[in-house]
Specification:
The chain folds into 2 domains: 215 residues, no CATH class; 179 residues, no CATH class. The chain is built from 15 helices and no strands. Helix 2 packs antiparallel against helix 10. The longest helix has 38 residues. The radius of gyration is 21 Å and the shape is globular.
Length: 434
Amino acid sequence: MKWIQKIKEKASSSSYLKSVLTLMSGTILSQGIIVLSTPLLTRIYTPEEFGGYAVYVSILYGITILASLQYDAAIPLPKRENDAFHLLSLSVLTVLGMSLLVFVVVLMFQDLVAQLFQNFHFEEYLWLLPFSFAGFGIFQVMNSWLIRHEAYPYMAKGKVAMNLGQLFFQFVFAPIGFLGLVVGEVLGRFCGSGTIAAFSWRYIETKWRKFSFQRMMGLAAQYKHFPLITSWSSILNVVSFHLPTLFIASSFGPAVAGWYLLAQRVLSIPESLVGFSVKQVYYSKATKMVRTSNPLIISLFWQTVWKMSWVSFLIIGSLAVIAPYIFRFVFGDGWTEAGFYVQILAVLYFMQMVVGPIATNFYVFERQGLQLAAEGIRCMVILFAVWFCSIHFSDPLKSIALLSVFSSFGYIVLALCSWLSIRRGLQTKNKKGK
């Protein structure tokens, strides 16, 4: 077909598009199996069980942002390969140390968490949290290393291994009930991190002989703004995204949380297929442009914004239109309500898909202070929305709608600050050049 041939010709002439399509190819495979398998999972597990899983995942994402203290985000930045290797070593050691800390904290406070979410049986599976934490952290660190080397096929394969592993074990452990979702999540993380670590080894094995503890600590000090500033920005980012889930679960019960999770899972598919791939490629291309003083980064920024806007509108808009009519048929009785949640959350996921790639500008130009300010504003907006909903709304649909609108506004703030980081970053480089 002519349109397919045109896409192939366009991809072959554009390294940016070619890189995106390479990442998307692997992601399409893993996400395609998730799409086909989710209707089976919703017939094996109840909305209440998915609700408990939603809370677990929200807590996991809330703490994994500190897995490497954000040192992994600095790996693509140094000009010298040896410095990047030492940042990789620092990041891995930090993940291991933080995993041990999470294990100790879980032992100390699991009873308190179980009391906060009495209907979710946290005492049965909270002990698995440090293992999910470690698997997630190692995956992120190795992924940053592959971004530096533009090893997109390996990144795609790692993503496939993680998603397929999670689904496989969630099916295998289905007979043990709700706990099967969490066990599958943990084992899937290790499938993904093990796979991507194996692929990364070819870039690492010759560098161990040059390891220097002093150099690693010197780089830890050099990039200290990542743990001191970027970590706080990332914490605020995660709080902004997952606080609504915890609020909904605690206020409206496991079933509503389960419907909310399914809506998020469906709306996250476009982000995983397109947004994640574009984000990784944009970050890699932008860091290379900055290292080589390439002025085309502004063109890259606007190209990404406009293309992601129309792609997101087409995909998310289509999902919003058809979701209420197909959810009962696709996912089974008891899941119809989640289709209406998709409509309510559509605007939020549109904004997330557009802003996600360009938000990496804060790392590219090392504008962590600006990122912290943007995330602080965004978090305060969502906290206000949660407070308002807790006082004035007893209907989950109204609460989710308000949270969606305010969260979307937060992404607009993030986008504006991302653009400002480019302007300030280029001005600084021009002054240094003079």
